[in-house]
C-alpha cells in the first residue's frame, strides 16, 4: 500500500512540475534538455555582414573602408588574406536567397556598406547610385521571397576617408556623418525595412579597433581609445534613433535597435562574494557598457567607480571614462525599440587585483578580474569559442532583469570550425545549435522576451583578423574556386527541421496539452501535501525523462508508469471500500 502511495505521489509530482519548473538563473545549476516549441510568430533567421561576404571591394563606385585598407597591410590578417572577393555575395543575390528559401528562413540579417553608398562617408560629397541599386535589389528579392530583412547600418566598415581626416570613432564628428548616412538609408530603403540595427557589436569596434589594434583601424590607444570610441558610438546610436523617431517612424512604422555582443561571466566560486562581484563586473564592462546608457542613461556604476579610481591612482585629474551631461543622459536613455544580442561563449571569472601604475593603462586592467575556462568545455573552432550553452540562458535572464525585459532579437549565435576542416558533416555545430537554441527556449519559458533568432552565419566568410581560417557558415564556401560555390553542411538540415517545427516538439507534449486541464487540478491538490525533498526527487525524475539520451526511458515511463498508477489507484479504492465495509 505504502509503495502504491509513493508511486502515486511521484507520478503526480512529475506532472505538476512539468507544468512549472522553477529556475533561479543566479544559481549554478545546469539543467538538461527541454522539449517544447517557441511562441507562434517566432522569427528564425541567419546573418551576414557586408565586408565579410560581399567582395567587390572596389567595384561600381564603392569607396574604401578601413577594413579594405587594414587587410591590405602586411601581417594584419592570417595568411594576409583580404575580403576583396570573399563570397562574391555582391554578384550572388539570387543564389543566396535561394539558400535562405531552402532553409525556410523568416528573416535575413545583413549590413549596408557605408562606403558603397557614400564613398567618402560624407553625404554632401557624393552618393553612389550603383550602391543604392544593389541594396534595392537585395531587399526586393528578399521581400518577394517572404524573407524579412533586418538591416545593420554599421558592421565595422567605416569609410577610410573619415578615418584619415578625423581619426574615425575617436572624433565626435562621426556622430553627424553617421546620422546622415543612416538618414539616407531610411529615405531610400525605409519603405521596405522595418528592423534597423544601428551598430553591430560596438564592443569590438572600441576594444579591438582602438585598444588592442587587432581590428581596423588598428590603433593601440590603451586605456583611453576604447572608452572614447564607445562614447561617440553611443551618442551616434542615440542620434540615429531620434532621427528615425522624429522623421520616419510615423510613415515607415519600423523599429530601431542596436546589436550588442555579450559573453556570459560566471563566478568561479558562487559562494565567494569577490568572485560574484568580479563576474558581474565582467558582464557590465562588456554588455553593460553600452546597454546601461541606452536603457538607463549612464554608464554602469561599477565602470565609473573602477575606471575613476584607477585614473586617480595614476595621477590623472579626471576619469579616463568620459562622462555624459545630464541633457545627454536623457537624450540617450530609452533609445532602443529592441535589443539585438550576439552571444557565443562564456567564461569563469575570479577577482584579481591588477596594478594601477601609469604603465598599466588598459581596459582589461581596469576590470580587476581574471578569465578562466573549463578544459572540459568543447571548443571545436575558434580559440576563444567554448561551447557553454547554459551561459546563454543566464545572459538572457540578466538582460531581462537589468533592462526591464526589453524585446530581444538574437542577432548572432553560432560556432566555427578549424582551418583545414572541409567536412560537411558538422555534427559539433548541430550539437552547439541544439543546445544553445534549447537554452534560449528555456529563457523564454523564464519570461525573457525573445522574438527571433539569427544563426551566425549563413555562409562561411571572411572572419576579420582570422581571415578565412575560421568557418562559421551553415553553407560551406569553396574560396579556392573563383566561382565561390556554396555547399550545404549537415547543420542546414538540422536548422531547417528546427525552423519547420518551431523548436523541439515532443509527442508526449502534444498529448499532455490535452490532459493538462484534468491533471493540473489533481496534481495541485496533491502537491499541497508534499515535502520539499519529494519535490526534488520528482524534479530529478523529470530531468531524466527530459534527457534525450534516456528517451527510451521516456517510452517506458509513458506507458508503464501511467498504467501502474491507474491500477494502483483502482486497487487502493477497492481496498478502502473493502476496509470500510468490514468496519460496518
Ligand atoms: C561577432 C561579429 O559581429 C561577427 O562579424 C563575427 O563573424 C562573429 N563575432 C564571430 O567572430
TrEMBL record:
GO terms for biological process: carbohydrate catabolic process. GO terms for molecular function: beta-glucosidase activity; galactosylceramidase activity; glucosylceramidase activity. The keyword Ribosomal protein does not apply. The active site is at 412 (nucleophile). It catalyses: beta-D-glucosyl-(1<->1)-N-octadecanoylsphing-4-enine + H2O = N-octadecanoylsphing-4-enine + D-glucose; a beta-D-galactosyl-(1<->1')-N-acylsphing-4-enine + H2O = an N-acylsphing-4-enine + D-galactose; a beta-D-xylosyl-(1<->1')-N-acylsphing-4-enine + cholesterol = cholesteryl 3-beta-D-xyloside + an N-acylsphing-4-enine; Hydrolysis of terminal, non-reducing beta-D-glucosyl residues with release of beta-D-glucose. Its EC number is 3.2.1.21, 3.2.1.45, 3.2.1.46. The keyword Membrane applies. Belongs to the glycosyl hydrolase 1 family. Klotho subfamily. This is Cytosolic beta-glucosidase. It comes from Mastacembelus armatus (zig-zag eel).
